[in-house]
Design goal:
- With about 400 residues, the protein is mainly alpha-helical.
- The chain has 2 domains: about 190 residues, Growth Hormone, Chain: A (Up-down Bundle), CATH 1.20.1250.20; about 200 residues, MFS general substrate transporter like domains (Growth Hormone, Chain: A), CATH 1.20.1250.
- Helices cover about 80% and strands about 0% of the residues.
Length: about 400
C-alpha cells in the first residue's frame, strides 16, 4: 500500500514540477520574447505577475473547490488548464493573447500546493506524511533548477515557442497518468458535507493557530521571492561581481534548498512532539541567515550566505506545510486550512519584490533591515503559534 502511495506521489510531484516549469519558462528567454513581441520591460514583467495574480484570486476559495470536486477531479481540471494555457501561448501572435495564456497557466499554480497536501494526508494518514510534505515543498525549486538550464538551449535549437510545446506534451502525459492511476473521488452520500464554503471557512478564520502559520508563511514568501528576484542585483550592484558570476550565485539559491525540504519532512516525522520547536528553529536560522547579506567578503562568503538562507527558507516553508493540516480537527477542513495559508503565501510573493525594490532605491541598508524584520515577523508568528497551541492543550 505504501509503495502504491509513493508511486502516486511521484506522479503528483512531476505534476508540480511541470507547473513550476510552466511558470518559469519565460525567464531564461525573456529577452527573446521582448524582441519578438516588441515589449517594454514593464509589459514583460506582467507576464510573470499575472501568473501569480491567478493564485491570489483562487487560493482562498481553493479549499471549498477541492471539498466540492474532490482532489482528483480538481487535479484533472488544473492539468487541463495547464495544457490549454500553453497551447494558447503557442498560438499567441500578440501580447494580449500571450498575457491571457499566462493567466490561464496560473490557475494550476494557484491550487497545486493545496491539492498536493490534501493528497498527501489522504495517502499517508499516519506515517511518512511529514517526509512526503517536505519533498512536495521542493517541486518549485526543482522546477526552477530545470527551467534555468533547459529552456534557453531548447528555444535556440527548436524555436522560441518550443518550451510551450514541451510543457503541453508533459501535461498531456501526466493527465493520462492521473486518469489511469489516481483513485476516483466518489464519496458516500452520508459523508457528503452540506455546509456552504463560507460556513466551512469560518472556523479557519477564527483559528488563531492558522493565522499564525499563515503570517509566518507569508513572511517566508516575501523574503524568498525578494531574494529570487534581487540576488543578481545584489551581487552586481552592491558587491560589483560580474554578471555571469552573479547569475551563477543566484542559481545556487534554488539548488541548495531541495535536500532541506526532505530534511524538514524527515525531522517532522521523526520528532512529532517537537514539530513546533523545529519550525521555530528554522525561522530563527532564516532570520540569522538573512541579516548579514550586506556584510559579506568574497565568493566563499557569498556561497555560504546563499546556502544558509536557501536551506533555512526551504525548511521553514516545509515545516509550516506539515503543521497546517494538523491545526484542524476535521479532515474536510484540511483543504481550507492549507488554502488560507497559501493565500498569505501568494500575497507575500506579490508584495515582496516591489517593496524591497523601493527600499533599495533608498539604500541597500534599508532593504536589508526590512528583509531581516520580515524574517523576524515569521519567527514571532511561530512563537505565537506555540503559545496558542499550549493554551489550547491546557484548556
Amino acid at each position: 500500500m505504501q509503495k502504491r502511495a509513493w508511486f502516486k506521489f511521484l506522479l503528483l510531484y512531476l505534476g508540480g514540477v511541470t507547473i513550476s516549469l510552466s511558470q518559469l519558462k519565460i525567464v531564461p528567454i525573456l529577452t527573446e520574447i521582448n524582441q519578438h513581441f516588441h515589449l517594454s520591460l514593464t509589459a514583460s514583467a506582467w507576464l510573470m505577475s499575472v501568473f501569480t495574480f491567478s493564485a491570489v484570486f483562487l487560493a482562498l476559495p481553493g479549499g471549498g473547490i477541492v471539498s466540492k470536486l474532490g482532489p482528483k477531479k480538481l487535479l484533472i481540471a488544473l492539468m487541463s488548464c495547464l495544457i490549454l494555457g500553453n497551447l494558447l501561448g503557442l498560438m499567441a501572435n500578440n501580447y494580449p493573447l500571450l498575457l491571457l495564456s499566462r493567466f490561464i497557466e496560473g490557475i494550476p499554480f494557484a491550487m497545486i500546493i493545496m491539492v498536493g497536501i490534501v493528497f498527501i494526508n489522504k495517502w499517508f494518514p499516519q506515517h511518512n506524511s511529514g517526509l512526503a510534505t517536505g519533498i512536495w515543498g521542493t517541486f518549485s525549486a526543482a522546477g526552477s533548477l530545470i527551467a534555468m538550464n533547459i529552456f534557453k538551449p531548447l528555444s535556440v535549437h527548436f524555436g522560441l515557442k518550443s518550451p510551450w510545446i514541451f510543457i503541453s506534451i508533459l501535461g498531456v502525459i501526466l493527465l493520462v497518468l492521473y486518469l489511469t492511476y489516481f483513485e476516483n473521488d466518489a464519496v458516500p452520500a452520508s459523508d457528503k458535507n452540506s455546509a456552504s464554503m463560507l460556513q466551512l471557512l469560518k472556523p479557519i478564520l477564527h483559528n488563531r493557530s492558522i493565522w499564525a502559520l499563515a503570517i509566518a508563511q507569508g513572511a517566508m514568501a516575501f523574503v524568498l521571492y525578494a531574494f529570487i528576484t534581487l540576488y543578481p542585483l545584489l551581487f552586481t550592484n552592491f558587491y560589483h561581481v560580474s554578471a555571469n558570476q552573479a547569475n551563477f550565485l543566484a542559481s545556487l539559491f534554488g539548488l541548495f534548498g531541495v535536500p532541506f525540504g526532505l530534511l524538514a519532512g524527515y525531522l517532522m516525522d521523526k520528532f512529532p512532539q517537537h514539530n513546533s520547536l523545529i519550525t521555530l528553529i528554522a525561522f530563527v536560522l532564516m532570520t540569522l541567515s538573512c541579516i548579514p547579506m550586506l556584510w559579506l567578503h568574497g565568493t566563499v562568503s557569498y556561497i555560504v550566505q546563499v546556502f544558509c538562507l536557501s536551506a533555512t527558507i526551504m525548511m521553514a516553508s516545509s515545516c509550516v506545510m506539515v503543521l497546517a493540516p494538523k491545526t484542524v480537527a476535521a479532515g474536510q477542513l484540511v483543504g481550507y486550512a492549507v488554502s488560507f495559508v497559501n493565500f498569505l503565501y501568494y500575497i507575500g510573493i506579490i508584495i515582496g519584490t516591489p517593496i524591497v525594490t523601493s527600499m533599495i532605491e533608498i539604500s541597500w541598508s534599508a532593504a536589508s533591515w526590512l528583509l531581516g524584520g520580515v524574517c523576524l515577523l515569521g519567527a514571532i508568528s511561530i512563537i505565537m503559534f506555540i503559545i496558542f497551541n499550549h493554551r489550547k492543550e491546557i484548556s
